Batch of 2 targets.
Target 1
Amino acid sequence: MSRTVYVNGEYLPEEEATVSVFDRGFLFADAVYEVTTVLDSKLIDFPAHMARLKRSLKELEMGAPCDEAKLLEIHRKLVTANEIGNGLVYLQVSRGVADRDFHYPEPGTKPSLVLFTQSKDPIENELLKTGARVISIEDQRWGRRDIKTVQLLYPSMAKMAAQKAGADDAWFVEDGFVNEGTSNNTWIVTKDNTLVTRNLSTSILHGITRAAALRCAELLQMKVEERPFTIEEAKSASEAFFTSASAFVCPVVEIDGSSIGKGEPGPVTTKLREIYLEESRKAAL
Ligand code: PMP
């Protein structure tokens, strides 16, 4: 079935939806994005995704395409038009269309806005049941990973390296410490049941699911440390997992060929995922 997508004010069949070859997103990766999960046709963590979008735009001195109420309306229209029960909505804003020049175009240039849905059910993700196997890889991305830009080539290369190694994902390591996964934030559970995840900085994306999982950990009265950890520490942890809007709280059972804990999804990860899903559904829009 052809999807209805949103492009710059119009709802169109996907075959008819186009952007200009002069779009700065296409030429310079001068664009930011958000991915919002849909469960039971409702949007998970929508206000937090919009707050991060605003922050990304501000950091890049890019104009907003419209206000948040309009963005909510577009999200909902696409969910309805494409009959999305469980899936996601992808949103991308670029600096707009201008003659190719490294300088930003005139301040009045209209940003391009594109949204589309994907119907892949995140709940059906096999890795949630089996746990993921990850490899470590040097972090060679640019330094502003806190801005959610569409410069995703290095993460894409890392995913391919993981696939070639027979693994499911890669964890980026810099100066000996784990930053995050290719498209997720990384966590370990120490032997004394403390949750550890890297502190926020420009080194990592400020994950919406990371923030939600921290709130869940508080509900569960778990001890949390926001600090860097090494691959060696992760290998000797009792559990490991990653968080992202589309993978929720996903167990990691192997790092660089070493089994983590019992080599199967652990109880803390499972509990956290359950609470996360429960809380997210309650707050869904
Ligand atoms: N880090 C990176 C590099 C990501 O691409 C993502 C997914 N957008 C995340 C972390 C997780 O962020 P969120 O929980 O907001 O999906």
Target 2
Amino acid sequence: MLVYLNGRFLPREEAKISPEDRGFLFADAIYEVVRFAAGRPYRLAEHLMRMRDGLTALRIAAEPQFFPVVAARLLAENGLDKEDALVYAQISRGAAPRAHAFPPPGTPPTVYAFARLTDPPPAPEGGRAIFANDERWGRCDVKTVMLLPNVLASQMAREANASEAILVRDGIAWEGTKANLFAVTGGVLRTAPKGPRILPGVTRAAALEAAAGLGLAIEERPLAADELFSCEEVFLASTTLWTYSLVEIEGRPIAGGRPGPIAARIRETLQKEFRGARVGLVT
Ligand code: PDD
């Protein structure tokens, strides 16, 4: 597999990152995951905008424009340009002797990217979830690699034979460990509002647009964890999943234990948008 590291394309075994890299030492880094079908990206501009916002928020001196060219070459060189694939890119503040405050100006950021096949679609009968305490830092809106609480919650879910953990803070079910959370209640599509407690998902925004197009009522308002049990539908949304219905949380069935129609209609709308989009990789 050929990967990209700091301006070079090289076999993964030869890609070496310093142990002093601030991504490794401090999780001082951001990342993106973009979906491609036969080389065509889904909502690339939104991903690049979020990358730029994250770099600005953390004051990392890098620009997102490397991404389209690098992604195209990674897909081509790895034989993924005819496939459904994901491209992951991570930018850290670079390597420097360990000190908490920023390294001297001019320290080059570390830029790493790789491509791989998408995951197989999740099981059509829907997934199980558990609740996990949301112990993430206060800026969940920045797509940082500070994912240790997400990792621990995700492992907790796996050990509970669930596919996802819903992160709960102050009684609010904010989002999943790697996806945004939606619910349908009283016919209204609900999701947490944008703000420091959630990642502004590209798929979240697309799902809200799709729902509006389908004539659904929408409310961006926090969902109490307790409320989820009386909802008509609960589902996740992300680049990797599109939408994915949750049919059980904490061992209790949601909406009769079957995936609901709204998640399916939104998923179909997003996939149709993607199939129909003419936007090329290099914009
Ligand atoms: N995760 N919330 C969190 C905490 C996420 O990590 C993600 C994405 C999302 C959905 O964002 P988007 O629709 O832009 O993918 C929401 C990626 C896919 C990952 O970590 O693999």
